[in-house]
Design goal:
heterotrimer; A alpha/beta (354); B mainly alpha (299); C alpha/beta (370); A: 354 residues; alpha/beta; 8-stranded mixed sheet; 12 helices; 12 strands; 22% strand; B: 299 residues; mainly alpha; 75% helix; transmembrane (chain B); BP-dependent_transpt_permease (chain B); cell membrane (chain B)
Amino acid sequence: MSEPLLEVDDLEKYFPVKSGIIKRTSDHVKAVDGVSFDIARGETLALIGESGSGKSTVARTIIGLTGATGGTVRFDGEDITNATDEQLARLRSRVQMVFQDPTSSLNPRRTIGKSLAVPLKARGVATSDLREHVVELLERVELNDEYWNKYPHELSGGQKQRVNIARALAVEPELLLLDEPTSALDVSVQAKIIALLEELQAEFGLTYLFITHDLSLVRNFADETAVMYLGEIQERGPTEEVFQRPRHPYSRALLSAIPVTTDEEEAYKPRHEPLRGEIPSPRDVPTGCRFHTRCPYATDACSADEPQFVAVDAGPSVRCHIYDEAYADAFDDVPEVAVAAVADETVASNTNEP
Amino acid sequence: MSAESASVLDRVVSAERRELWQRSWKRFTSRPMSVVGLGIIVAIVLLAVFAPVVAPYPEHAGKFTDFSNTLQPPSLDHPLGTDHVGRDVLSRILFGYRLSLMLVGVVLGFGVPVGVLLGLVAGYYGGWVETIIMRATDTALALPPLVMALAITSALEPTLTNAMIAIAALWWTWHARLVQSIVASERSEEYVQAAKLAGASTPHILFREILPNTLSPILVKVTLDAGFVILIGAGLSFIGVGVQPPQPGLGTMVSQGTSYLPDSWWVSVFSGLAIFVLVMGFNMLGDGLRDLFDVEVNR
Amino acid sequence: MRLDEPVAENPLLTVEDLEVGFESFDGLAEVIDGVNLSIGKGEVVTIAGETGCGKSVTMKSILRLLNQPPARVSGEITFDGTELLSLSDREFERVKGQRMSLVFQDPMSSLNPTFTIGEQLTDTAQFGGDSDTGVVEFFRRRFSGERDEAHERVLEMLREVQMPDPENIMDSYPTQLSGGMRQRALIAQALLNEPDLLIADEIGTALDVTIHDQILDLLKDLIENHDLSVLMITHNLGVARQVSDRVYVMYGGRIVETAPTDELFENPKHPYTQGLIASIPRLTGGEMATGIDGSIPEYLDPPPGCRFAPRCPYATAECEEARPEMYERGPQTGVECVLYDEAVPASEQPTVEETRSHMTRRPSKQTGGD
């Protein structure tokens, strides 16, 4: 089997907290605290998380917008952790990023054409050929050539995001990091952008790291899904597995919290258990299992020992004592993973796909 | 894409662009204050440029005396009267405007680019670069411009040139600070990061991405500064360390006229009014521009 | 058959023929174009729609939060028998203060950061609905025993909204609270004066999923316990389904469909509603969500006739000429679409699946859509 395109191994990003008059580092915000995953070429990994999960920081660290404080990132076999300027320059043509807010990603004082010309010029396209290339890029994202002379404020949210995608594609990258690319858009627009991303992936063989807080978005789109909480991955596996049999209590809670519009989906969701309490601050990470302060199944063991990230049933990997045989006695109320088995039948009879 | 369709497209788009300008113009002209300000400045600039032609007695602006005609009150011949050596006040004011505008041009022409450049560099790089530049700025800002100008012109010769140098030497600090604060916040904006990711060079990011976003505040500040500069120049001239007689500095004229108050009031009063109108003009224009840009930003 | 009567039984709030225009540099923008809705006593009604559909403007015109000019509001808004638009500002403030409450959208910016939660909420408890309080009366109340009473009421309310550690929260500033806690504080504030009508503007949009979930659960309990009538504004159809009795779907400044919640989701009729539902990704997997081609109408120059026609896969010339009527298709159910005229056979009325397949068709080059 060929090497994965992106390998992230035990990535850490700590932000120092300075206090006192002489600004000594008193504490650390552990935004990313040991994150590992691989993405194979041509596939999509969805990274799910709420605020404080660290998902955006993971992307920014991978692409070099901020440095890692620990762990490694390998792209196509090459170690790019804390890349040198020379590495970064080479990387720019192979890894790109699309940000969440379509408006702030575009310079309000420059026309779309000018903004799109930037990566083209950096790639070495001659000035005389610029217009042609820009129009071609616009067409790839289903915008016609009228847009080349417009300013960002003349475009809608969806159109701006298409421009951002076009700009990311300008250097013909292999890996695209998408940081909540549709969160700022309406549902009807969101669906179109996702459809566009899927097509582009098929056409150009792109690999995606798709970051979002909206689980339902990635159901049909991602090959693998990883759920993050407070800087760690809590569950990771093939998307279907994670959705049909969510094992980690946090994944279950996330899934059960999604407001859906059909009875079918309602039945598919795990049993609804609203979580207690607030999301802790990454500055003040709970002891033991980070999730224990809100987990409906937490026991004493959970606040004392940190769970390891282990594979379950040759399927997804989970970070939870419930799935660790060593703690089997601690839990008398193991959540019914089998509930999803019923949903399996419902799903099988309703769709044509496995 | 054929050349023909390209030009049709360009025409369509420039029609839209023209519409944008029209709307901005409409917005600007909807505020009477802005229009009046603009009108005043345009009028004064034209008068100053064409002073040799427009002034009734252009030769009165320099070394000229006519002791038979001293301190004449305003009349048809001399609409603003004559001063204590018989020169036409109106003509001198027109040439005085020339000097004022020249002062503004030199001071801002030097001070603004230097300040903007330093502010860009300080704001973008941060760290010790920013510290060095901004602490220097802070120090310079702590010195009141008028007092400093006074000190410098007193130490050197009190001439207009030296006054200009003195003021210009301090003026960059305001713009450096203004630009630095804008750039410091803009540099973490996503469009800057996106440009970095796209492979843009640092000069490109500084001058093509960030700078255009600072132009509106700079333009407003420059316009309001102009009034300030004129007042400082007039102040220096008034106390005798700026424009020297026989040159028609407006401040100098006010100063000379004070000896003849209140009987021959017209010299001081009209010179003072001339300063007032010019400064007001700049202020009103500046306010109008600021409101105009505010609206655009909040769109 | 036209839907003329207000649909709610026992209506508390009725809006009839609401029209709101905005004067701008470029002309008059006709944003709200003849909206009719009603909320019954004890009912939870949602206005659902995407950005720019006019739901916020509608809500603001009910609460007189629009500046007139540049807004121009006309129509009839009746609250428990009183015609609101004809009241003076003072009279309206009294009605609003005592009987209506608004829970704002963004808890981050709706609380004053310079006052503690306790101070702000006790102020609301003591002075809410009494904007006429004179200076003397203000000081009297502020420093009397009534203050302690109000303080107690606030504590009670904070407990009811399940605020953790309420005594401590009373002494805390909004910046010290998390998003979820601020939202609870806002809800508590809204309920302090026991309103009859609660208006909730996009609650939870700024919150994390799991926190949002908690808040919605809380809201459902509160609605029941206080017998509230609620008008909810949201763009999230899933939320509308969870909480409401009836839903109004808005598009382009008009109500395009209304129905009891179950009916709307089991049997959406208007092509826009169908397109919207088809755009929501399915948790169960299967087909990709589709999205809707095109973009919302320009209010300065809206299309004549049906405002959705430019984007509708079933539009005919008739649709572009005249605004369709609101056809009644069942109890409290109405659709503003010619396809639902009685004369049209059921076979010609599209299902969600048909609309979905129409919208999955490859879009042509964008000339102005999304």
